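Minutes, project huddle
Topic: does the predicted pose make sense with aspartic acid bound?
PN asked that the exact inputs be recorded in the minutes so nobody has to dig through chat later. Recorded below.
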Amino acid sequence: MSQRRKFIKQSLMGSALFLPGLSAACAQTNEKTAPAGEKPLILSTWNHGVPANAAGWTKLNESGSILDAVEAGVRDTELDLTNLSVGLQGLPDREGITTLDASIMTGDGSCGSVAFVRQVKHPISLARAVMEKTPHVMLAGEGARQFAIAQGFPMEEEKLSPNAQIEYDKWKVTSEYKPIINIENHDTIGMIGIDANGKLAGSCTTSGLAYKMHGRVGDSPIIGAGLYVDDEVGAATATGLGETIIRICGSFLIVELMRQGRTPQEACEEAVKRLVSKTKNIKDIQAGFLAVNKYGETGAFAVHPGFNFAKATASGNVLIDSNSHFKP
Ligand code: ASP
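Predicted holo structure (tokens), as shared on screen:
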């Protein structure tokens, strides 16, 4: 566990973090059963979800749009220089190149994504541009980069961040591809939110697995895998080893299970069960899901302990240790 993560965990675990615009905090540390629904609400993965939720909440107050909120929220993480799994400061692939994946979706079925894109600081905003300005859902690689240029996105210099360079140099000594659960194979930010009127939206952005093969695309930009949103039912997002999440269409599966009457918590648990049943060497693999239904009830579940998420409501923005994981 990185020093930063330890620090944040120690500072925030079990306590409420007060943020501008949010009043009394809800000091909830363990969610074993689905809580009573609350709207508006924003949920996002991992420690960085706390500042991301705060940015999203501020935007929701300003613009009233849950879509604007989930974009603004994860843009905050895309700029976090200490995060080595999101944005251009993320760890590179095995060729030393950082490539990014992102998706965005609203509950009316509108969605956009970009995959394997380089030099774009805010892939989430590029995904939104794909959704709003093209007849397509997904653009990848050089085509996505060309679209970004045409849309006026600045192109960033292709240079590893100082932290990523240090880690990459260390990795090159052995060039061993062996992600360590809860450390190297996650940190994506997935965010799902619901406004006071029940409109849903979600976003997901990542630099993907560290030291992946050049060209590898994970679950995050794949609608239905890393993210799925339907106003009639709810929303879900994923983090962890993308290949395992893609195989079960994880986020879509959760939304469909909720459609059939499962609570968000039950749906997340069933998706993890499915993922485990389709995955060899599960002991080395972490994956986790977050879900919210149209009533504002939430769920979270992961393969292994260590999965946490941030939940913002009118009463506070708090980091929650899901403490809720698969038990064979
Ligand atoms: N899901 C991401 C991927 O496979 C990794 C992560 O959650 O950090 O690309």
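Observations noted during the meeting:
- The chain has nine helices and 13 strands.
- The chain has one domain: 42-321.
No decisions taken; revisit at the next huddle.
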